[in-house]
Every structure is written in structure tokens, then in C-alpha cells.
Amino acid sequence: MILHLAAGLCALAGCSDAGIDATFQKILRPRLSPQQYLLVAVSDADPDVRRDAVARVAESDDYQTKWAIDGFIAIATLDTDAQARCVAVRALGRTNDRRAVETCLKILNHEDHPPQEIRPPGHLCRWDATQALTEMSARGVIPDELRVQARDTLLDRLANDAEAQVRCAAAEGLAHYSERDVVPPLIAGLNDENFAVAHACEMSLVRLTGETHDCSPYAWQQWYDTHKSAPFANAGHIPESRRAPYDGKIDKAAYKTKQFFRWMFPGTK
């Protein structure tokens, strides 16, 4: 009965015989365990199947186990499918494992490694690796012996990456490194041709220093020249003009709802 109903729906939708066969295969496919999905993720010839399989492992409760992290690392560094790599990198970024940090650093510094160890990443993979490094920096899980390399890698991505998304993520990550060497590059980033990058640099400078100069590299440089001895004295203070108009998820939802109704009905308060 169910199969006849599925066939009828597929026929109404104009599915080909091959499409109907694929639909039946999905319906009849047995549910796999996370470990079985990982085997599929590292072995199947179809990149779509590999991507779906690694996503299922990432969504499972086992994503932080050793065997899962080993699989994510293999896929993140060597898979030929960019999207499968990105899913694996994002999964690694959710963990607190040292190897996740090492893998992101390897991806972002792939020129320093032989190609059999790391496949050159595309811009999406670099973006996810930079974002993962930023998130792990925010959680304070970067090992002490890797902090300098992590900081320098973020600085390099901010200054040299061709993709604005990567530069944005790098600028956000640098907010978690209260070091003098970080401030001048963030000020230089205010000159970025992409305003999203400049804004990310401004917000990181705000977080680090407790000051704001409205994305003006000239004003920031003047400030820094007179505060080099203690640039982080007011760290943690957020100037009024840079504070979010809400606090927490509930307030954010209420604010977004109010903004929506103001857009829908501009004549009302």
C-alpha cells in the first residue's frame, strides 16, 4: 500500500523511472548507526551520499567521540567534495578537541604541508575553518602551545585572504587575543574594501579596548598612538553606541518582531 502510494505520488510529480527507483531506495534503506554512516562518509563514491553521511554523524550524539573526530579529520583534510569537507570542519569546530584546532590550522596553512596530507582548500572550506578557529578561540579551548599559531593564522587570513567572508571570520576571531600585535592589523582592516570586514574589525577593536571610533582608521590610529602602553585597560566595556538593542534570545526575538511590524506598518508606533 505504502509503495503504491509513493509510486502514485512520484508519477503525479512527473518523476522518471530512475527518480522513482531512487525514492524507493530511500524509503527502503535501513537506518544506519553513526559508525556505519561514518564508514559510508569515507568510502562511498557518490559525493552527495558522503556529504549526507558525514552530516548524520555530525548531528548525532557521538560527534565528539574519538572515532568520529578521526573521521571528520580525514574528510576535512582529504575529501574531494568541498561541501563534505565543510560539514566535517563545522563538526570539528563544535568540539573541544586539540586535533580539531590542529586540523583547522593545517587547512588554513596548507602550503606548509605536502599535498598528500592536506588537499588545497577552496574558499568555503577556508571560511568554515576560520570560523571554527574563531569559535574555539571564543570558548577558550585553543591549547596554550597553539595560541601563537592560531593568532598568526587569523592575522594572515585577515590581511591576505581573497574572500571577504574569510577575512570577516578572522577579524571576529582576533577579538579573543588581547595582545598589542593584534591591534594595528585590525586598524588596517578598517580600510578593507568590503564594509562587512571593516565592521568586523571595528567590533573586535571595541571588544578588545572598550572604545569605538566608528570604523575610522585615522581616529583609531590616533587613539592607539596615545594608548600604546595600556590599550586594553577598558576591555569588556561596550560603548553605548555599540550595544545591541536587546539582551538574550527572548529580547532579540521581541526586537526582531517589533522591527518587522514597523516595516509592515510604518505609520504605527
Provide a short characterization of the protein structure.
The protein is mainly alpha-helical and 269 residues long. It is built from 14 helices and no strands.
Q: Would you give an account of this structure?
A:
Mean pLDDT is 87; it is low at 5-9. Helix 6 (82-93) packs parallel to helix 8 and helix 11 (183-189) runs antiparallel to helix 13 (217-226). The radius of gyration is 23 Å and the shape is globular. With 269 residues, it is mainly alpha-helical. The chain starts with a helix and ends in a 5-residue tail after the last helix. It has a domain at 27-138: Leucine-rich Repeat Variant (Alpha Horseshoe). The protein has helices at residues 2-12, 17-28, 34-43, 47-59, 66-78, 82-93, 98-108, 123-138, 147-160, 164-173, 183-189, 195-209, 217-226, 248-264.
Structure characteristics:
about 270 residues; mainly alpha; Leucine-rich Repeat Variant; globular
Look up the CATH topology of the domain at 27-138: Leucine-rich Repeat Variant
Quote the average pLDDT.
Answer: 87
The count of helical stretches stands at 14
Secondary structure class reads mainly alpha
Instruction: Tell me the number of strands.
Output: 0
Termini separation: 56 Å
Order of helices and strands: HHHHHHHHHHHHHH
Uncertain regions: pLDDT < 50 for 5+ in a row?
5-9
The CATH C-level name of the domain at 27-138 is Mainly Alpha
- Assembly classification: single chain
Largest sheet, in brief, is: none
Query: Which geometry do the CA atoms define?
Result: globular
The CATH architecture designation of the domain at 27-138 is Alpha Horseshoe
Percent strand: under 5%
CATH superfamily of the domain at 27-138: Leucine-rich Repeat Variant
The radius of gyration is 23 Å
Helical content class:
55-70%
